[in-house]
Records
---
Amino acid sequence: GQFSGIGAELGTRDKQIIVIAPLTESPAEKAHLQAGDLILKVDGEATLGWTIQSTVEKIRGPKGTSVVLTVLHKNSQKPQDIKIVRDTITVKSVTGWVKNAKEIEGIKISKNVNGKIAYIRLSQFGDSTNNDWVNIISKFNLQMQAEEDIRGLIIDLRNNPGGYLNDAIFIASEFLKKETPVVIEDNGQGIRNTRSVSRIGLFNDIKLVVLINKGSASASEIVSGALRDNKIEGKSRAILIGETSFGKGTIQEANDLGNGAGLHVSIAKWLTPNGTWVNNIGLKPDIEILLDEKDPSHDTQLEKAVLELLK
């Protein structure tokens, strides 16, 4: 959840490095990096043809040190050198907002469309996820009681590599009735243990869309599978939109060996409530849609999710 750098999500377009989005309150945001900016050079080295990984390695560095990016802003014709001092970046595992559909950045829909959409992004299932989740869900609950035109909720699990199994059950429980099955543990010796909802969720009835892609793995797939397999009045609790997920269907037990060493042992495989094992296969979305490679700032998957909720 922490690293030292400038705090920007990067992508590629036509073999060039592009800024997808700066993180909130990061050095990148304070330096006025914007979505769609091209990073032409890093400390004087041209980035043309660089991979995302090699670019990140060049830009990251110890807190307090600086990096000079040669940037071409989206609506400019002249590159600009920007010096950014690196800092410790803390990535929140849960972020979200409630917006009118026509005010959502990165999508292209008719300006005549009205209706508010709630959105939550989970970047991981880690130590602070449950607390962060409760805080934002409580805030949303108050907003939804005050607002009459919130059409539904989008849960964005794209590029979420997973984490704690118990956290996945905790999150899924927000949208399912008590004692509904969430995940099945299979120890490989014929013994299966069904883990079910164990708390009262606030959003059992809200219209729900889940965004997944090839970077959604493990706990992300547990949540997605539970919301897909469980039904209300014959319909899946949530619609899955995006790309087929990663396909990690095993459960690990972490052992601390001391002196910084550890051992993770696979102790079981997990199945969706319908008994599906996603390992090496992944979850196929109900609506498959790819991102716009020509325009990374255009989020076609989010756009489709919004349109589904506005139906």
---
Amino acid sequence: MVNDNLIINKNIEEVEEVLAPKVKGLVYLDQASQDLNLDFFILFSSIAGVMGNPGQADYAAANAFMDAYAEYRNKLMIAKKRQEKTLSINWPWWKEGGMKIDEENEKLILQSTGMAAMQTKTGMQVLYQAMACGDQQVMVVVGEVARIKQKLFSDTSL
């Protein structure tokens, strides 16, 4: 759920509307599955949870919650209160995904960050690689590697 606006211009109902699917949904899903012997527990977070995004403070917070919850569930696994490892993947936007952006914004993002929309085939490959890597959190970015590295590792505003 995305409802873009500066946080100062939002009321509590708008913030809760954005937080609920990821925060409440995740907690409910965890509680409902806590006694099941699952093969894996994967959270589909967003790079907004790591990098933020103007006008999406609540959406970024909801995704950061998911990333922190992966760590929490993995501690429960160590304590034998969950059976499977939890992985949170911070996805970029998908070219064919439900949260599409228009062409103008896509070009603007590519120009300013080097990041591009991810194709479904790439996303599926990354999903399997992320599952195999053993980490509890993986951030995925697609685009012009040199520019992305420059943006991620030299921009102190992130």
